[in-house]
From TrEMBL:
This is NDP-sugar synthase. Residues 13-239 form the Nucleotidyl transferase domain. Coiled coil: none annotated. The lineage of its organism: Bacteria, Bacillati, Actinomycetota, Actinomycetes, Kitasatosporales. Pfam families: NTP_transferase. InterPro entries: Mannose-1P_guanyltransferase, NTP_transferase_dom, Nucleotide-diphossugar_trans. It comes from Streptomyces aureoversilis.
Length: 244
């Protein structure tokens, strides 16, 4: 990509790992959501995330903990990690935007761009390419966009109401926020102290044309682990060879 050779790709990241994961019970009765293991891997979701971030050039990660924080912290202390990890714990719920701002205060390089990801995302794609996309557009923030499959079968009809075909779990016609971000250094100050940045900061940046959306490359693996069914399907996809 033009002009990206000298671009300093981010080497720091925030992982939001404080959710209770109520839809994943009983798996989350004794551990936070990012500590749930993908069947067949022996590694929790956050372990896969840290390995991915390290492979993409990240050297420092800040993990924002909440629900059962001590379980996650104990695992991080005992694990053989591929990068430096710091944990922070919110004393009171700050919301997603406030949580990002709180965690970003512990990044080692506040004057440099940074990645962020939700703690329940299992994905593989080039963060460096996303960062170059972000840089070329001079965006304050860039969010990855996924096109998930609809969990129901779809029915195709013609203009006369005749059923033409049945399509099992077709791709959604809409792109969604994939829960992975690239932020400029200045973005940290734009985040709210409390509340949700997706209802405050993001809409304002969109109006100012300073928010970019990066569609995940064709064939990139992406899955949000929200339910027991997601765990089962992730294990099935792993058995078929993905993600790398």
């Amino acid at each position: 990509m033009t002009g990206t050779n000298a671009y300093p790709y981010p080497t720091q990241a925030v992982i939001l790992a404080g959710g209770q994961g109520s839809r994943l019970r009983p798996y989350t009765d004794d551990r936070p959501k990012p500590m749930v293991e993908i069947p067949g891997t022996g590694t929790p979701i956050i372990g896969h995330q840290l390995a991915w971030l390290a492979a993409e050039g990240v050297t420092d990660a800040v993990v924002s903990c909440g629900h059962l924080a001590e379980v996650l912290q104990e695992w991080l202390v005992s694990a053989d990690l591929p990068l430096r990890v710091t944990t922070v714990v919110e004393k009171e719920p700050l919301g997603r935007g406030g949580g990002l701002k709180f965690a970003a205060a512990s990044l080692p390089h506040p004057d440099r761009p940074w990645y962020a990801t939700n703690g329940d995302i299992w994905t593989r794609f080039s963060l460096r390419e996303m960062a170059a996309f972000h840089h070329e557009r001079d965006a304050a923030a860039t969010l990855a966009l996924a096109r998930p499959r609809i969990p129901w079968g779809a029915v195709e009809t013609d203009e006369f109401g005749h059923v033409l075909d049945f399509i099992e779990s077709p791709p959604s016609p809409y792109l969604i926020n994939a829960g992975v971000y690239v932020f400029s250094a200045a973005f940290t100050d734009m985040l709210p102290e409390h509340g949700d940045h997706e209802r405050t900061t993001f809409p304002r940046l969109a109006r100012e044309r300073r928010l970019a959306g990066y569609p995940l490359p064709h064939g990139a693996y992406w899955r949000a682990i929200d339910t027991a069914k997601d765990l089962t399907e992730a294990a099935r996809e792993l058995a078929r060879g993905g993600p790398a």
